[in-house]
Amino acid sequence: MSDIKVGEAAAVDVVDEGLVTELVAGAQAGGMKLSGEGGLLAELTRKVLESALEGEHTDHLGHEPGERAEEGRENYRNGHRSKTVTTEVGPVEIAVPRDRAGTFEPQLVKKRQRRLGGVDEMVLSLSAKGLTHGEISAHLAEVYGTEVSKSTISTITDSVMAGMAEWQNRPLDRVYPVVFIDCVNVKVRDGQVANRPVYMALAVTAEGTRDILGLWVGDGGEGAKYWLQVLTEIKNRGADDVPMLVCDGLTGLPDAVNTVWPRTIFQTCVVHLLRNSFRYAARQDWEKIAKALKPVYTAASEEAALERFLEFGEAWGAKYPAIVRLWEHAWAEFVPFLQFDVEIRKIVCTTNAIESVNARIRKAVRARGHFPNDQAALKCVYLAVMSLDPTGTGRKRWTMRWKAALQAFDIAFDGRLTAGRR
Q1: Are 201 and 373 in contact (CB under 8 A)?
Q2: Residue 368 and residue 280 in one domain
Q3: Which superkingdom does the taxonomy of this entry point to (predicted)?
Q4: Where in the sequence is the domain holding 215, given as residue range(s)?
Q5: CA distance 2 to 352
């Protein structure tokens, strides 16, 4: 049984359903609301918090309330002070116990703490979905009756920056079977609104799980020179071997990749190659062109693919010479996946693995419009990435999807994956 299920079972054992029914019935009979400020949930939250604080206070003093003073005792109870904390059920006013020596440091609701952790998590979750600070403040006020200022929300979201820096610089695995790289453009108001590329590297681990290796904000277009810096940083963090790297195609990138990892096979995304082909063709010919190109990228070998491509050139080269040139220029980066079994082919022929992440990021970024600076943009993207798989079901799907491919990878690359686990 998982820890979550154990926790749920324990909670059921503690909570008496009859008592809950009685409390709800009493509240309704007395005209008390169930939620909102002054409601039953807020009152229960207050009593639970105060009871827990009294328990902490007793542990700190070492004697129960009302016990006779022992000789030599130096510290005593000294009343309470009122404090309002923002909770998930709204603002709650609690009485915090004090001691005469002033040494009591409560842990459940710390000194100067005005929000419980659930509120911070709620703010971060809403921010990850792209809501502005004003929208989050309005949402909390409307739904929970909780007044949280925009500056407080900014402080909460800024708190993730330390964690982001640690995540960005964490040590990496020695071997990643495949790394997918791409970038998402965000709008930053730097004097005037301009596009900034946020670079991302997504890896598949030797166990078949997804690992986003990092996020980087560039200062211009998506360039191979900047990618060289990014890939060098990834290697310096411990990633010594990457058998395959997949990208949507960028001039000069294969040289940058092989500068960092000489044995890495560079693969361009076939889906992007097809999409780029359609840009040079009339819409009514898209379906015919897709059908004519399919034998090229599904060929059994590079030689067979070249034969099919020559046939495509004869059929369509006169009408769309730009498509033929596009495939000729990308041929060296297109053909590597054809040397592998179908288990590997269907995984590395496309950047869909990273495109699904990009779609989530773009959704959050579009909702915000533009950002005041690079740091704000990076924070939004980071929050979106961290909230990708809250239930863990995505991790399971990835593992199942990559199981057969990883076995084929280890054979195709002479045990480099197995060596990386040692």
Answers
A1: no
A2: yes
A3: Bacteria
A4: 172-421
A5: 32
